[in-house]
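Ticket #4471: structure output looks truncated?

Reporter: J.K.
Steps to reproduce: submitted the chain below (261 residues) through the standard prediction queue, then opened the result file.
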Amino acid sequence: MSAATLESGPRRLTGPVTAPSLLRLTRVELRKSCDTRAGRWLLAVIALAAVATVALALFTGHDPLSLSDHLEFAQLATSLLLPVLGILLVTSEWSQRTAMTTFTLVPRRSRVLTAKVLAASVLALLGVAATLVTSAVAVVLTPVVTDGAQDWSLGAAELGQVVLLQLVYVLSGVAFGMLLLSSPLAIVLYFVLPTVFTILVSTVGALDWVADWLDLTTASAPVFDGGLDAQGWLQLATATALWLGLPMALGWLRVHRAEIS
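Returned output as attached by the reporter:
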């Protein structure tokens, strides 16, 4: 009778080890956005705020509102709160001390950051889709709760500009998260700095022109007032460069140089 001998020592994997695809990394980042209690609560608050805003406009408005009007009201809530989810998408790696695990599994930090940007972009698109559905429901209910008729007016150009603005706002949150790597600090400064800047340029008469070119709120206002013209696009581009491009570039560099512990 012969006995089989077992090889001792750890088994070695044969064949090359492939890095996870960018699509898979993006799906992981999307799952991270709702895995935490803070993320789930934030998503719930965003949904409730969007519904409440549209319902308030529907039941208290004197004139019937169009689909475009309802979408504008719904975007007030999502554009304000959804960037916070973009911030947490980055800063949670440091607050929950998962950065070492993440960057050990994927040593190329640029791939992780790219996945976070793509995941935030998907969240922004889902936010617009959700507010669009909510607005459509409000239009359907208009004849039921008011004396007005349904108004489905919403131009394709306006919808595209709304999507662009949502992307800019959410990615600005991601940029602040990369730059500061601290959830409380990034959230506070994301809201405080633009507010202080807006107050400053509004109170100082000599800085009126600055608001049109560097204040993101002022530069994006024409989207809901008839659309952007050529100068409006240029003003939006300069404001976006200040509040999205600059912090994103500095934050990207900081994450690459940050010590992971």
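Triage note (M.O.): checked the attachment and the full token line is present. Residues 1-8 have pLDDT under 50 and may be disordered.
Status: closed, working as intended.
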